[in-house]
Specification:
With 133 residues, the protein is of the alpha/beta class. The protein has a single domain, classed as 3-Layer(aba) Sandwich (Rossmann fold), CATH 3.40.50.1010. The chain is 57% helix and 11% strand. The chain is built from 7 helices and 5 strands. The chain has helices at residues 6-13, 17-26, 35-48, 51-61, 71-87, 93-104, 114-117, and strands spanning 2-4, 31-34, 65-67, 108-110, 125-126. Strand 4, helix 7 (114-117) and strand 5 (125-126) form a beta-alpha-beta unit. Helix 1 packs across helix 3 (35-48).
């Protein structure tokens, strides 16, 4: 199963050709997102006050699984954060929670934000151009 990061959700919502193709390609294996990504995208939509885009997003998101931050994710978050802190490579806590969700639930992250996420060992990443890392 694939977890769409906030940037992937936004690109898909905006009709980005590469992202639409990527979602079409992977949807048979299951698409999900994190409650963190949901919050980030909704905050942007609420800021724009675009009811049409918000409606489109709500319709799309109702068809995907939204993973909460549960105890397993919290433990994975703590493990990852400790390792990154030790290396002096901390990243944003929201990104850490998204990565922890993927690791805790054996999900592949669909993102364009490779700068942060590639620091996390064991995280499976799928970019919108279809390249597995």
């Amino acid at each position: 199963m694939y977890l769409l990061d906030s940037d992937s959700l936004i690109n898909f919502l905006n009709g980005d050709k590469k992202m639409v193709e990527a979602v079409y390609k992977i949807h048979k294996k299951g698409i999900a997102t994190s409650v963190i990504c949901l919050a980030e995208v909704l905050e942007g939509l609420y800021t724009l006050s675009d009811k049409r885009k918000t409606g489109e997003f709500e319709k799309f998101i109702s068809a995907v699984e939204v993973f909460p931050v549960d105890e397993t994710t919290a433990r994975e978050f703590a493990r990852i954060r400790k390792a990154l802190r030790k290396k002096g490579q901390l990243i944003d806590n929201f990104d850490l929670l998204i990565a922890a969700t993927c690791l805790a639930h054996d999900l592949t992250l669909v993102t364009g934000n490779l700068t942060h996420f590639k620091r996390i060992g064991g995280l499976k990443i799928y970019t919108s151009v279809g390249m597995k890392l």
